[in-house]
Give the backbone structure.
Amino acid sequence: MPSATINVMEAAARKAARGLIRDFGEVENLQVSRKGPADYVTEADRRAERILRAELAKARPGFGLLMEESGETEGEDTRRRWIVDPLDGTTNFLHGIPHFAISIGLEEDGAMVAGVVYEPLRDELFWAEKGVGCYLNRRRLRVSSRQRLSEAVLATGIPFKGRAGKHAFLATVESAIDNTAGIRRLGSAALDLAYVAAGRYDGFWEFGLSPWDVAAGIVLVREAGGFVTDIAGRPAAIGGGSILAANDRLHGAVRQMLDNSLKASDEDLAPKSLPPHGGSSRAPVRSPVAGDVCRRQEGAADNDASGTDRGSAAPPTGSGR
Ligand code: 2AM
Ligand code: CA
C-alpha cells in the first residue's frame, strides 16, 4: 500500500501530467511551424512546475522545495524538502519524441527517502519509499539479475555542447561498446534510473547531472535492490554530478570498466572549464538556477582508493532486497 506521502506525490505528478500531455500534443503540431515549439515548451515546463509546487505545498505546507526552473524555496520544516523536475527529457519533448517524465523526490535529513517518476504517455508510475520497496503502478519491481557484463544492456547520457569531459565520456562509451551487449541513450535520466529499477536496463551511467535529475531515481534503484553510487563508487549524492546505477551483481564490474576507461583517457577533468549547467545550447528552454551543479567528473587517477570490491558500491540502505 502506498503511504500518504506517495499518494501526495502521485496526485501532484498526475495533475501536472495532464497539462504536459496536452502540451505535448500541441508540440507535435508545432514541429512543422517555422517558429518551432521552443517557447511553447518553456511555458509547458513552467506550467507543470507551478502545478507541482502548488500541489506539494498544499499537501505539505512546511516542506522546502528545490525545483529545476525556480530553484530553492526554504520551508519551515528544515528537515524535509521536495526535489522536483517538472519535465525530465525536455529535448525529447521539444522534438515530439515520446519519452519524458515528471520526477519528484523527498529528502529527509539530507537523505532521499521517497521517489516518484511518472511517465505520462505510457501511464507508468514508478514509485519507491525507503524500507517499503519499489513499484511500477501496483507491481513490485526488482533490478535485473544478469551477472555477465557481456550480456548487459547499459544506458547513458551524452554530455551537452560546451561541457568538459567529452573525451573522457567517449572513452567510457568505447569500453561499453567492447564489453557489453549494448548501449541505450533515451534522454531522460529520471527514466533511465527507473528503468534500472525495473530491470529493463542492467545499469546506467552519466556525468554532469543535477539534483532533480536523480533525486527520485536514486530511491527507486535502491529500493529495487540495485546499487547506486557516483562514478567513483561513493554513495550516490544528489549533488554528486555523476551517477552509476546497476543491478547488485553488476555494479562492481561496470564501475571497474568505467574506471579503467577513464584512467586510460588523458582528458583533464578540472572543474574550472565547466560552464554552468544552464549555459548549453538549450538555453531557451531552461534557465540557470541556484543549486544547479556541474561537478568535476570522477574516475580519474585520484579515486581508485575505493577499489573494485562490491563494498565500495554502497549497498542500498532500504529493504526491498
Ligand atoms: P532535462 O530534460 O530536465 O534537461 C539527459 O542526458 C539528461 O540530462 C536529462 O535528464 C536532462 O534533463 C539532463 N540535462 C542536464 N543538463 C542538460 C542540458 N544542459 N541540456 C539538456 N539536458 C540536460
Ligand atoms: Ca532533468
